[in-house]
Amino acid sequence: MFPGSEIYGGLAGTWDYGPLGLTLKNNIKNSWWKKFVEERDDMYGVDAAILMNAKVWEASGHIAGFSDPLVECKNCHKKFRADHLFGDKCPDCEGEFTEEKHFNMMFKTNVGPVEDKGSVSYLRPETAQGMFVNFKNVMDSFHPRLPFGLAQIGKAFRNEISPRDFLFRAREFEQMEIEYFTRESEWGKHFESFRTEILKWLSDIGLGKGSVHELEVPAEDRAHYSKRTIDFEFDYPFGRKELLGLAYRTDFDLSAHINKSGADLSYYDEETKERFTSHCIEPSFGLDRAVLAVLCEAYTEDELGGEARVFLKLKPNIAPIKAAVFPLLKNKPELVKKAREVFAELKKEIRPIVFDDNGNIGKRYRRQDEIGTPYCVTIDFDTLENDTVTVRDRDTGKQDRVKTGELAAIIKKAINS
Ligand code: GAP
User: Fold this and answer.
1) Cys-Cys crosslink for 321: which of 172, 284, 308, 373, Cβ 3.0 to 4.6 Å?
2) Using CB atoms within 10 A of its CB, is residue 225 exposed (0-12), middle (13-18) or buried (19+)?
3) Is 20 exposed, middle or buried (0-12, 13-18, 19+ CB in 10 A)?
């Protein structure tokens, strides 16, 4: 990952994903979609526009209330989030602060060529509202029965006063959210079920129980729409901080949109003949925060063959590169030819994989260790004799000799487990 617009000095709070970072992020995203959408029968995916009618944000309460307390130093004029400060003096120059102001975090823009009040729109600060406004579309076209959920992955934007800690607090980031609709009487049951599923998925991507902690958010700290929230926190190197949230949003959003838009977003129960507004449980994941947590958790220092090494102990299912194939020696054409063949065969079944013949074999292993590649396959002189290769395990450095024909199955098993 690189600072956004780096050659121009960057743009605070933006990050660009390079080839490996993007693949890692996509693997995490796909694992989430598979678990929370594809493997279930009660979930419907949507992909709503990022720009939404400003009335959405009036109804949701974001125009009135999505703000952070802002103070400015009277001396150096630096701006700070008041609730992130310790003490009442500027940490940079000891200057006095101005009175606290409320600063709305939504990015404002104008849609169309005329810049007036009527053309104002906002970049969405959460993907959630894209699902509430599509509730009726999904109801009318798929007729789901309660409980059911809408899921969406997409960018969200917040004009954070002080973006910091790498991907943790950015101004442009990605969310993976679910709005799960239920009868009011059943919200507790579904809340608990998501609580369990969230922990299982975190473990699927390599975030073990030891580094994830649940925090029951007290009423005074909860968002305006929430009757109960649990923050799932992770032990980042800069402290224990929120990775994702699970909230009971009640019928706040659907009711607000019914009132504002006049649309009928009610649910009719065919059995009880009752019409009511559904309540909603919201698991809300920050994708970039998950990427950062996975990287922090995977970062490992150890000693191998008497030398210190740093490697990423990523779970094979989310490692960006699944395997690397090497000819033992670059200057032996028969080894390179065979290695190319093994690489081509393996690539038919497992992707992405890489071919590397650059530098000595030890250096090639270390390069793969650094990016978390779980397996390195080496083609040596025995391969030419008996069609076997060595497979080196990233975590132990141990090498096993296997038949080339069995290679794909062995690696596939690890990736899928
Ligand atoms: N729809 C509910 C909602 O947006 P939130 O707690 O404000 O709730 C949900 O945000 C998640 O989005 C957070 O738990 C975090 O993972 C991620 N997130 C929020 N602000 C972020 C930021 N500035 N940078 C990166 N991720 C952020």
Assistant:
1) 373
2) buried
3) middle
Say how many Å lie between the CA of residue 400 and the centre of ligand 1: 44
pLDDT in tens, 363-387: 999 999 999 999 999 999 999 999 9
The predicted-structure confidence for 11-42, as pLDDT tens digits, reads as follows 999 999 999 999 999 999 999 999 999 999 99
Choose the residue to mutate in 32, 60, 126, 155 for probing ligand 1, maximizing ligand atoms within 8 Å of C-beta. 126
CA of 244 to the centre of ligand 1 (A): 7
d(CA 254, CA 403): 59
Query: Which one, of 130, 149, 407, lies nearest residue 280 by Cα?
Result: 149
Ligand 1 neighbourhood includes 125 CB (under 6 angstroms): no
Using an 8 Å Cβ cutoff, are 313 and 268 in contact? no
Ligand 1: does its nearest atom lie under 6 Å from the Cβ of 204?
A: no
Stated pTM of the model: 0.95
170 lines ligand 1 (CB under 6 A): yes
Q: How far is CA 48 from CA 248, 258, 284, 301, 359, in A?
A: 22, 19, 16, 42, 48
Matching residue, tokens 């309540």: 279
| Other beta carbons less than 10 A from residue 59's beta carbon | 21
**Residue the block writes with tokens 């080894």:** 335
pLDDT 10s digits, 211-255? 999 999 999 999 989 999 999 999 999 999 999 999 999 999 999
